[in-house]
Design a protein that fits this description.
Radius of gyration: 21 Å
Helix content: 55-70%
Structural class: mainly alpha
Distance between the termini: 30 Å
Length: 248
């Protein structure tokens, strides 16, 4: 799932503006080790890339989930080291799917500022088809902030729009099946036994903590398992293709 890393080009001010946070927040996360250090350019100016932007968005989402900075640090440390900006964007989109709607009303100029690029009418059409945004009769946009960066990244993927939508439907179908099975497992094996007896205060707090942290942990497990499975399937598919070539 990894892609070739792009050259870091954002200053700390540009990174903060794109992410919707303050420069002070970026520096604070960096001192905590939550963000990797920037690439140092001429005149000792730090430059940040897409991975920094995606990781910063993921940190903000995990905080929105109620995780402490210490818990987020452990969570990020457990992620595969080779996750690209696209991988992190997918990771955040999956986490966001567990929480209430995070959409925001915005103008075209604000939308492009959030996206970090100009958007053609075809770009807007594709983002609309991917359910990243909707347009009202006044020309205003309602944007799903959890999917925006992923949707913008997909605009540059050299595959057809129809293929992207088909892949999205495949992911949604299997993700829904996995969520249903995991919910059943949690209900029958964790919540059921917990409610059969009168829990004390400590047990109640432990269950609240488990409920609050279960969702991002499950997402982490799903992303990691999917990444490994996809690599195995792609390797097997290409090996089979090479084995069936001319003269074989």
């Amino acid at each position: 799932m990894t892609t070739q890393a792009q050259e870091p080009t954002l200053t700390v001010d540009e990174l903060a503006a794109r992410a919707g946070v303050t420069v002070r927040t970026v520096r604070f996360y960096s001192t905590r080790g939550l963000l990797p250090p920037p690439a140092i350019g001429p005149r000792r100016v730090g430059h940040y890339g897409p991975e920094h932007l995606s990781r910063l968005a993921l940190i903000e989402e995990l905080q929105h989930q109620g995780m402490t900075l210490s818990a987020i640090e452990r969570y990020l440390d457990a992620l595969p080291a080779d996750l690209s900006a696209h991988d992190l964007a997918i990771h955040r989109a999956l986490i966001t799917a567990w929480v209430p709607d995070a959409s925001e009303q915005t103008s075209r100029a604000e939308l492009e500022a959030r996206a970090g690029r100009g958007l053609s009418e075809d770009d807007v059409r594709r983002l609309t088809a991917m359910n990243v945004l909707t347009t009202d009769r006044h020309g205003e946009y309602r944007v799903d902030l959890g999917l925006l960066r992923l949707g913008v990244a997909l605009l540059d993927v050299p595959i057809s729009h129809e293929t992207i939508l088909t892949a999205r439907n495949v992911l949604l179908e299997h993700a829904r099946a996995a969520a249903q099975e995991l919910t059943r497992l949690f209900r029958d094996e964790v919540w059921g036994p917990f409610t059969r007896e009168e829990p004390d205060a400590a047990q109640v707090e432990a269950m609240k903590s488990l409920s609050a942290h279960m969702q991002p942990l499950v997402v982490q497990a799903l992303v990691t398992a999917f990444q490994r499975s996809l690599r195995q399937e792609l390797r097997a598919a290409f090996d089979a293709e090479e084995g069936s070539g001319p003269g074989r």
